[in-house]
């Protein structure tokens, strides 16, 4: 099994699946354009086992994400050409862009990490790009969502070789909660609807004191020292909700409605003025 490395590669994207494949008894090696030391994400230094020129032919190719450069023809061409002879090619996170650049996702369904979904749709118009999933198995080509999703895709791929029972035992031995029936999926969480709310405070000093919920509701509370009055803060948030996010003002004070994931949502905003700590603002959303 070949793990493709490149400068800026995301650590968990390759190390998580590497642990899974290694535990399954596979012969895992790393490969890059050069076998010289490269710098991965967060400053990790890695020396690839092989260069593209002398690497063994793998049965499985793992393409991680991170600081990917889809215009790097050396990396893209090696993945495309080697994939033609391998049994499986699997991407993690934005590694899907390298597959797409090589035409490997044409006419297929694929996914990537949630924030990059729209970008992949634009980059790969011949691909049916979806979220709401942990990974997508097209047979020879498997794409997974962000970061730890690669481990789920790796367990799935291992199960094709070892069977689900043995793979489940292996997952337990690794103390990983592998759930192939109802896995954690980032894009299903309701917190994605509060991101614009948090972006409002980016220029100001703030402390997030609550952040919790599930697929049907989310609660976030921010304490900010923004030099604005209550009225100014509410006006700023209203603009963010209505003009940027497309939420619609409801009949009740400081409440909005919006649609998402084929569901209607209600958002309620509350603001408390605090003398020393500034304003405490709570946004609560719930589906109905």
Structure description:
There is one protein chain. The protein has helices at residues 11-23, 73-83, 95-101, 117-123, 149-162, 164-173, 195-199, 230-244; strands spanning 2-4, 29-32, 38-39, 45-46, 50-51, 60-63, 88-92, 109-110, 128-129, 135-137, 141-144, 206-213, 217-224, 248-249, 255-260, 263-274, 278-287. The protein is α/β, with parallel strands linked by helices. The protein has two domains: 2-183, Rossmann fold (3-Layer(aba) Sandwich), CATH 3.40.50; 189-287, Gyrase A, domain 2 (2-Layer Sandwich). The strands form four sheets. A seven-stranded mixed β-sheet has the order 5-2-1-6-7-11-10, with helices on both faces. Strands 12-13-17-16-15-14 form a six-stranded antiparallel β-sheet, covered by helices on one side. Helix 1 links the parallel strand 1 and strand 2. Helix 1 packs parallel to helix 5 (149-162) and helix 5 packs across helix 6. The termini are far apart.
